[in-house]
Structure formats: C-alpha cells, structure tokens
Amino acid sequence: MSPKTLEFHRTLFRTLVSQTILPLILVFTPSGLVLTLPLLGLYEGPLVNIVGVTVAFYPSLEPIVTVICIKEFRKLEFGKKDDRVLQPRHSCAVT
C-alpha cells in the first residue's frame, strides 16, 4: 500500500477508536452506574442528573471528535481560509 493510504487508514482507525470510546464514557458508564449503584446499596442522587446531561451531549460531540481526528476536516474548519475563495468576482454591466 502507498504511504498515503496507510496514513489514511491510521487516521480512520484513530477516529473509529475515539468514536467507540466516547459513548462508553458518556452513555454506558453513567447509565451502568445508575443501574448498579442501587443494587449495591449506594446512593446515586446527583449521578442521575449527570446521565441525562451526558446522553444529551453525546450526539453533539460525535461530529466534533471526527473533525478533530481527521486532518483534512480540521484544516477546513480551523485552518487559514484560501484567499481565492474569499475574493468576490467583479462584474461590469453595460446598459
């Protein structure tokens, strides 16, 4: 495989790993704690509110992880804009 293809595969692998870890941290861990802490006789009061917040944040953080992990997306979003694209075209109309 070419070096560009290998780098692309590494980037996609890192992105997929990040997208796998994010729901584990934000959705499954808090939800699992809310379900298991009462079985162990422990108090889970404020944790119940955190579950709702983290589950609500998850869909908005998923694309941000993708933009941060993939270099081309990061350049497009945070990089310097190309001057050729930002310059308006001048037109002259004669009537």
From TrEMBL:
GO annotation, cellular component aspect: plasma membrane
UniProt cross-references to InterPro entries, sorted A to Z: 7TM_GPCR_serpentine_rcpt_Str (IPR019428)
- Key words of the record: Membrane, Transmembrane, Transmembrane helix
For this UniProt entry, the molecular function terms from Gene Ontology, in alphabetical order, are: G protein-coupled olfactory receptor activity
Q: Which Pfam families match?
A: 7TM_GPCR_Str (PF10326)
The superkingdom of the source organism is Eukaryota
> For this UniProt entry, which segments traverse the membrane?
21-41, 47-70
Q: Which GO terms describe its biological process?
A: olfactory behavior
Q: What is this protein called?
A: Cation_ATPase_C domain-containing protein
Species? Caenorhabditis tropicalis
Q: What is the lineage of its organism?
A: Eukaryota, Metazoa, Ecdysozoa, Nematoda, Chromadorea
